[in-house]
Amino acid sequence: MTTIVTDAGFAADDWNRGYAKPNAAANDALALHLEPDTDPDQVPLSPGLEMIRVNFPSFSDGRGFSIARQLRLRGFAGRLRACGHVLADQYAMARRSGFDEVEIDDDLAARQPEDQWLARANWRDHDYQSRLRG
Amino acid sequence: MYVYSEFDNAFLAERNAQFRAQVERRVSGALTEDEFKPLRLMNGVYLQLHAYMLRVAIPYGTLNSAQMRKLAELADRWDKGYGHFTTRQNIQYNWPKLTDIPDMLDSLAEVGLHAIQTSGNTIRNVTADHFAGAAADEIADPRPVAELIRQWSTDHPEFQFLGRKFKIGVTGSANDRAVIKAHDIGLRILERDGETGFQVVIGGGLGRTPMIGKVLRDFLPRADLLPYLEAALSVYNLLGRRDNKYKARIKITVHEHGIDAIRDRVETLFERLRTTFVGLDQARLDDIEAAFAPPALRGASVAAFETACKTDPVFRSWADTNLAEHRDPDHAIVSISLKAHGATPGDASSEQMRVMADLAERFGYNELRISHEQNVILPHVHKSDLPALHAALKAAGLATANIGLISDIIACPGMDYCALATARSIPIAQEIATRFDELKIENDIGPLKIKISGCINACGHHHVGHIGILGLDRAGVENYQITLGGDATQDAVIGERAGPGFSADEIVPAIERLVQAYLDLRTEPAETFLQTYRRTGLAPFKSALYPEARAHAA
Ligand code: SF4
């Protein structure tokens, strides 16, 4: 079981249509799963693509934040999910980088319960970036 | 000087509250030590040999008197009554308790100081020329740009978990006093056809693979700075190696991919990012610049200064070494040496900090600077005030006249504090300074920069010392390797290794032989150690260092 974290707190996963790998055959995929060594420029963004999930194998590997940012810069407007070892303390970073939500396993959800994530649901506040760019 | 806005203060308060909660969650077990570590690091908290260490940022090296007094207060309330100024314009407290640190951070916030991003794999606190805003040779004050970069890089969501730390340095002068070529990104403000911009240098760094930075962009218009930096960081975040900590700095990324390939990627992403900035950053920069407007310098006769130079030889010798040229001829830039012979380089007691804060208020328009050379600067002092200032410094044990001389040594904390050290560095610095003070030849030797690191990480910048000393561990015994001919300025050069290392007992005599060789070799007293070295090369210095080898060859 996994938990999905959004600004509203914990919820069950409502995505049950699977993920494809971002290779040539994924041109008309509905959803993609990316590893952190993916070059975001090479990800096929077809019109039917609804969801991209980016894996964080370790919380200390911050490549996923740049991947999210660059996918948004390329115009991807669908659902963007971070999954894996993401800490509650990183929730604001994930949201500010362009992720909509975070997928964590039950262990992590038990150790870092909902209130620790909700504490960062105010990620729009105290944000230097929003003061520097349009 | 820039004063924290309501936004900055609210940000700091929020951030400190978050850290307080993180400390509590660590204690409760919600965070593992592994998970807590990067969080405490990005708030400046290290675990050292004996205790936690708190590293507080001195933003681009600039402080006002109230902030300096706060640093003294922290030393008294939560530490052992002193602090250590580092080569990256920080101050370190070596003995705080973890549970006290949230209170220390709240206390710092009262004067707009913090410890954010002074460590960890993130964009570190930005450093700048310590003569910024005062130097005669300056094109523009680098601090407004440094403050803009602080705001942009603070809590930047993309760059809190980089592959490795990332250091940015800025200079506004062609004479580089900020060692920008040894930074991950170095910026030099310049003017071209009436337009202000930057030369962007990338991939410099010392450490186990020392490299001089390469030019990424010859001229970057001022308004493009943030999107360009963001592009460079984003490219590094995705391309930098994560398989090997020792190959994770951007200097290796640049080395492995080549500067041209890196440039192509950065330029492509830059074009895309540029549109996300619509001028708010430039408006903010204008505000910051207004806040850094220079103080209204007073006009008065400088006769008192001239008289003191003629009548007081102690004052005269201090003035000769510790003053630098101010853009206003009636003012001077004063360096206060934290390198009294035999003292720990960069350490200041709370009492000394208070004295310096008072003197800045009385004579220095309320401004102080911390240099990467671990000294304190009063950037604007009217020359007529110098005799009184000197007398006050003397009374506080702060009038050592050795700026730029052989005893003005940069030394990292080494084995006395640092968990990574392979040898002591502070005692070596103390012994060298004491020895040359005894010999009374310091002034005769003239400009000579010795830099000492206690391990290969090179926090003491030994690669760019005219004489560099690297302390290693050879089968449990300290061994000191010498490099020669390094240079930290705009002509940055990595020093050459002189040969086999020396034991702790041998290193000071070895330095003495080197200096004696220089005195014998120089064509005239005006030829500096570095100039002589460049003229003669390594050979004569090598034979002075290793007389036995010479005897064998004969
Ligand atoms: S050079 Fe080594 S010993 Fe010195 S402070 Fe840096 S890590 Fe510690």
TrEMBL record, chain A:
Q: One Pfam family, short name please?
A: DUF934
| InterPro entries membership | UCP030820 (IPR008318)
So which domain of life are we looking at? Answer: Bacteria
Report the protein name in the record.
DUF934 domain-containing protein
Provenance organism: Sedimentitalea xiamensis
TrEMBL record, chain B:
> Which EC class is this protein assigned?
oxidoreductase
Q: Which UniProt keywords apply?
A: 4Fe-4S, Heme, Iron, Iron-sulfur, Metal-binding, Oxidoreductase
Q: Name one GO molecular function term.
A: sulfite reductase (ferredoxin) activity
State which Enzyme Commission number(s) the record gives: 1.8.7.1
- List each copy of the Nitrite/sulphite reductase 4Fe-4S domain by range: 119-270, 408-544
Family matches, as InterPro entries: NIR_SIR_4Fe-4S, NiRdtase/SiRdtase_haem-b_fer, Nit/Sulf_reduc_fer-like_dom_sf, NO2/SO3_Rdtase_4Fe4S_dom, NO2/SO3_Rdtase_4Fe4S_sf
- In its keyword annotation, does this UniProt entry include Hydrolase? no
Ranges for the Nitrite/Sulfite reductase ferredoxin-like domain?
52-111, 345-396
PANTHER family this protein is in?
Answer: BLR3264 PROTEIN, FERREDOXIN--NITRITE REDUCTASE, CHLOROPLASTIC
- Protein name, per record: Nitrite/sulfite reductase
Organism listed in the record: Sedimentitalea xiamensis
